[in-house]
Amino acid sequence: MLKLSTQAHVRNPGPKSRSVVLGSPGSAARKSAVRVLLIDDDEDTFLLTQRMLSSVRTPVHLEWAPNYEAGLEAIRRSEHDVYLLDYRLGLRDGLELMREAIALGCREPIIMLTSENPEVDAEAMRIGAADFLNKDHLDPVLLERSIRYSVKQFETLRALRASEARFACFMQNVPCAVYMKDLDGRYVYVNETCEKVFQPKRVEWVGKTDDMLWPKPTAQRFAEQDLEVIRTGLVLESTEIIQQEDGPHYWLSSKFPILNEQGIPTMIGGTGIDITVRKRLEQEFQEITEEEKRRIGQDLHDGLGQYLAGISFLTKVLQKKLAGKQLPEAADAGQITQLVNQTLAQTRDLARGLCPLGLEKNGLPAALEELSTNAETLFSVSCRIEIDKSLTVPDSSVALHLYRIAQEAINNAVKHGRARTITITLCRAGETAKISIKDDGKGLPRDFAQKNGMGLRLMNYRASMIGASLHLENVAEGGTVLSCVFPDPRSAEKPPAKRKHR
Questions:
Q1: Which residue among 250, 358, 390, 470 is buried most deeply as judged by most CB within 10 Å?
Q2: What ranges in 299-328 are assigned the alpha helix state H?
Q3: CA pair distance 155, 223, nearest whole angstrom
Q4: In a shared domain, residues 36 and 100
Q5: Are residues 29 and 137 in the same domain?
Q6: What is the pLDDT of residues 58-97, one digit of tens each?
Q7: What residues make up the domain containing 158?
């Protein structure tokens, strides 16, 4: 054996227990020494261990507990960095002591000492031993390495446990739903908010995919979003409408890739914030705004329109009287009548724009037909309409948002695209429905993304209010097409499927 300088210091050891500091000399070494407790009922083992640790570079403070009870009491005090535990301890054994120590909350590494017993070694590792050593083939290098690496390993484990505890505390109290999936779409983690809000317990989520937890259209949409996140490597934000026990809720969803060191996605992370209260307030505000528009439209039609109609009638009478007297002012009166009639027509057009009467009376298809006719009159364009007559939108709020989106899209096509032909389409698309406005204008400019104007922002806002998605793109033959994909009203009429709770 390699013999290095040794310093031993005996502290009031008691009848059989002993304590020595071994390794590098000096007070600094004693303060930084690894505190090792040997639990063994054979004093020769202690002396042999003391001699081996005397030749190592790592300063070691070695203590000896000569029996099971003394060892358990020392572990209970938690004064050591590592425990060397012999398997044979009289009538009891080291495995039993290890189980009892872990039950007491022992967080320090335990190294099991055996005599070529694979079964005991395997059981010790299963219980929680940091390492096992064969007493018959022990040497200073092997013993020092096992002690040093066990201490380092458990320091890392303690730091990991502390990190996991902070993570768990954060996830428990964060006011949003948080989850992680693997690349096959299986949930590997959900926090307690997911558990509380969406009913299935966390253990029921882990290992499941979206099609096991959500209705088919929702699961399909989530799967498409996951693929988009993996493909682009970018954050994807959306507003989701989820049916819950107290009705539909709006969730601001954010999905993002979780990358490895090479920048390759290994998982998908996601958060969801319940913005139902905000959305309901926004919807109330929108309803108030639309109600005010209807009031103004009715006032224009029934109030100002009637006054203008009266003025037109009076000026027409005046024109006839002046013409009967063959006065030249008759032509002026006729011009006034013409101007008043033009103003009356514009007033009625404004009233129809603010208050689409066809929408309330006959539903969205009729309102879109009226919008098409008005567009041809106002803008001198050809506006065709293609409508699936079986598609109805019974929710007046949804119908109004779709109408306003189509109205804004037509205005943009004429004003910015210089379109001459516009086509409005309302149809079903699989599990969803779609309204699209296609034009033959000059298309989107190259810097369109930087010029994201108020009109498009309002259309996006309206789409989010009804759980729809908005897409605007150039078409190959020229012009643009704006598509708004929204939930099929037929699926909204179906009651949400009840989930089984275990």
A1: 250
A2: 305-324
A3: 41
A4: yes
A5: yes
A6: 888 999 999 999 999 999 999 999 999 999 998 899 999 9
A7: 18-170
